[in-house]
Amino acid sequence: MNENPSCRVYLFRHGETANSKEVHFNGHFDVGLSVNGEDQFKEWAQVLKDEPFKAIYSSDLERTRLSARLLGEPHQLEPVSFPELRELCFGVWEGLSVTEVEKKFPQQLEKRMKNIEAFQVEGGETFEQLKERVVPRFEEIIAYHPNEQIALVCHGGVNRVILSHLLEVPIKRIFRIKQDYAALNIIQYYGDEPVVELVGGATHQATGAQDKKIAIQ
Fold first, then answer.
1. 217 lies in a domain?
2. What CATH number did the domain enclosing 41 receive?
3. Domain-embedded: residue 107
4. Distance (Å, rounded) from C-alpha 147 to C-alpha 156?
């Protein structure tokens, strides 16, 4: 294994959404952030204001673009957006709440949870298809930044696909990876070899303050 550190990645999930009072299948549905969601990234921006970010990336959906803009303000960095980093497409479920899906498409949620890797909503994507569009773009971004530190603001499904790819976790197990709103994951590359240092971290876990440090093993 190459012992010289290369690209360092701060991979975030976007902040809390405006429709977060009930779980929604937002997918490509372009919902914005709640006030709390904006505050989450204003806090991240302050916690990480001294980090040496060279670039910030996001999907082209509003909830990630605004989160990334707030994160980038102390660094005077304008985020670069890619549609390939969008959340899983939910087809006819787009923008619907869990309650609405259960009512309109009975038993489909149960089928989905029993067959995560292959289930496909009408007009939507499988997680394997999501992986096929996300991972190549992610790897291309990493290749742009040897020996630099960058941030990406993406989505829960996108982050799980990236982390499952790096950790070689099967798609059917990706919901074992927790990704709350505004969660942070830290990935340190050593040459081409990634080490996942943090998964699903909160603001107090990223600060350098002695009383708030966590042990990363």
1. no
2. 3.40.50.1240
3. no
4. 27
